[in-house]
Design a protein that fits this description.
8 helices, mainly alpha
Amino acid sequence: MPIAFALFAFSLGVFFVRFVSVGPASIASGSTTEALNYALIVGGAAEVLAGVLGIIRGIGYPAYVTTTFGLWLVGLFLLVTSGAANKAFTPDALGWYALVLIVPVAILAVPAFVHHNVLFAIAFIALIVVLLFFGLGYHLLYNDIVTATVHKLPPNVNTAVDFVKVSAWAALVAAASIWGVFAIEVYRNTGVLRAGTSKHA
């Protein structure tokens, strides 16, 4: 499970690097880079594997979280690679793919707040911000492109760019929080921290 946390945070960190400096040209040219594509599949595979094993072993909550995000990351990888190669693909598909995940993430966030798991709570808030602004950013990008095409004008994608940049900074916050969870688990398992120092499930 700690490995799944570490690699999910790694994916979020690469997401931050990809989108924090996004501009009108780069947002329109492609949704991801090769580095982010590999980060998505590595993080997604690790989370799915850890989550399924966790469910089998009865770990519960952390397994639900990692399985959900793992499958979503794998799906995102497929969407931005083979999906983007389809002629029917539009930025709107990416927008909806991010926005709809907010519902299960909000459901998964509740136990973190109820049990006062501070790092998980911060991570969930940041992840919801990531999904919201990333999804809205790509919706706006799609609408801007359609409007510009209709009126035969250059698209004004500045607001879309700003929204995606907000999602990048939120991804960095989420990554830092999840790396914090990873560090605590590693230090607890190696005896650096005593068991019971912090709880996360």
